[in-house]
Structure formats: structure tokens, C-alpha cells
Amino acid sequence: MSAFSIFxxxxxxVAFLLVVVIMVQNPKGGGLSSSFGxxxxxxxxxxxxxxxxxxxxxxxxxxxxxxLILASNVTINSGGNIESKALDTNETTEMPTxxxxxxxxxxxxxxxx
Length: 113
Known about the structure:
The protein contains four helices and no strands. The protein is mainly alpha-helical. The protein has a domain at 3-36 and 50-77.
């Protein structure tokens, strides 16, 4: 398994976790902490810190995703042999030429009357 494949698997996992963490949050300030009865001044069992945890985990996962993407970009070309005809500079391909355009006077029959 190449390094790029490992980075690709990690990117998919981190992206999935990032989606889950973002979906748990509520944009109105409720989110997971309000689900446990933390809507007002009553806070039980450290639920008050849930919003901080979700916020920090979002930033951590987003940063990890960017770092993994950049690291995978470095490893994608270090794999060695690239077999692409578009990148091959040794081989020159010639463009096919079109036949010369003819005018109407050349194509009409010039039969004497």
C-alpha cells in the first residue's frame, strides 16, 4: 500500500468525522449541550463544556484535513514512474492536416457552351 493510499484513507475518515461533528452542532447555540438539559443556567455533568469541545474538535479536524491533503499532494508525485502521454516530452505528436479549402469557382464545371 502506497503512502498516497494511506493519506487518502485518513482524509476520508477525517472528512467523515468533520461532517459528524458539524452536524451535531446547532447554529442557534443549542446543539448537543441543549439536548442534555443545558438550555438555561442549569448545567449538569459538565455539559456546559460540550460546545467548547465541539468547537475545538471542529477546528482540529479541519486543520488535520488540510494538513493531510497537503501531505498527500507531496506524496502523489513522489511515487516514481508516471506513465502519461500528456506529460511525455520525448514523443512529438503531429497534428493531422486538413486539405486545402477550395473555392466555388474551382469546383464548378467549366464546360464550354
